[in-house]
Design goal:
The chain has 41 residues and is an all-alpha fold.
Length: 41
């Protein structure tokens, strides 16, 4: 399933399932992006 920015609930669910030990209330998007953008164009 391809996600779009308008699918915010689905994005949140997938992030929570992939990282259940991280409280989404306290993670910054920039920190998440920086840790998951290794070599992405």
């Amino acid at each position: 399933m391809a996600l779009r920015w308008t699918d915010s609930i689905d994005i949140a669910i997938e992030l929570y399932e992939a990282h259940p030990d991280v409280d989404p209330q306290y993670i910054r998007f920039t920190d998440y992006f920086r840790s998951h953008s290794n070599g992405m164009d």
